[in-house]
Amino acid sequence: MVYESGVLFFIFDKLKIKAMKDLIQQFEKDLRAHLENTYNASLEGDEVKKINAAEKTVYDFVDHYLLESDLIAVEVELPAQRVLEEFLKSKIK
Predict the structure, then answer these.
(1) In the chain, what is the straight-line distance between the N-terminal and C-terminal CA atoms, in Å?
(2) Counted domains in the chain
(3) Does position 15 have pLDDT exceeding 70, yes or no?
């Protein structure tokens, strides 16, 4: 059976999209864990300073993550922002 090239490209694109979603979900999970670990490891007594210290590490975390993965900055920009906002909201309640 011969598949038309359009069908093969469609299947390949579907697999690429799923793989990309999986990579982004893993990035979000890793960033959440990083923020929580940084926050919990902080020796600051002031909650605002603990939050600020954790927030300041996000850019370095993302830069390192991009170097070690197949993701690019544009793919993680919004997920990183969303995770950071969720983290901040959870700590400021």
Answers:
(1) 60
(2) 1
(3) no
